[in-house]
Each structure stands twice: as structure tokens, then as C-alpha cells.
Amino acid sequence: MSEGVGSTEPGGGGGPAGTGAGKASETEQALGRAEELLERLKTTREELERLAAAENAEAAVDVLAELAELAKEVESELAKARARADGPPA
Questions:
Q1: Rg of the chain's alpha carbons, rounded to an integer?
Q2: In whole angstroms, what is the distance from residue 74 CA to residue 34 CA?
Q3: Taking a C-beta distance cutoff of 8 angstroms, is the pair 29, 14 a contact?
Q4: For residue 55, is pLDDT > 90?
């Protein structure tokens, strides 16, 4: 379900070099993707809780793997945003 998340996004090379607006925009985009992933994480966690209540261990294991992948993607997007915000001007 999480294939391709963030992988089809443009690299942000469309703006003039050295503009602070481009850097802020890229940072905001990374934060926006992280927020979307956090919403998916919340929804998936709720699904896991439903499966646990239904004692569906096999499906719960699959959802746990999905949660782990989503958490990695959130961490990646936050790291990108942090690097863009803290990095030297382009």
C-alpha cells in the first residue's frame, strides 16, 4: 500500500538557485508529506486495534509491518524537512 510514496515527487530543481522561497517550499512539502503519512499511520494503528480485538493475529502481523514502513517514511520526510530547513542556502 505504501509503494512509491515520495518517490514520484520532483526534486525541487524548478526554482532559481539561492532563493529562500524555494527552500521553504521544499521544507513545507516534506512536512506536508510527513503529515499525510502520520494520518495514514493513525488510520493503520486503528486498524491494528480492530484486528487485535477480533484476535486476527495473521492480519495484525501484516498491519504491524505496514506500520513499521509508514514510520520509516515519516522519519525520512522529517529528516528531509530538517535538512532543508537547517542546511546552507542553495
A1: 17
A2: 5
A3: no
A4: yes
pLDDT above 70 covers what percent of the chain?
A: 71
The helix/strand/coil state of 38 is helix
Pairwise pLDDT comparison (43 vs 26), residue with the higher score? 43
Q: Say how far apart CA 82 and CA 48 lie, in whole Å.
A: 30
In this structure, how many other beta carbons lie within 10 angstroms of the beta carbon of residue 86? 8
Where are the domains positioned within the chain? 41-90
Helix 57-86 to helix 20-53 angle (10° resolution) is 160
pLDDT band at 89 (very low <50, low <70, confident <90, very high): low
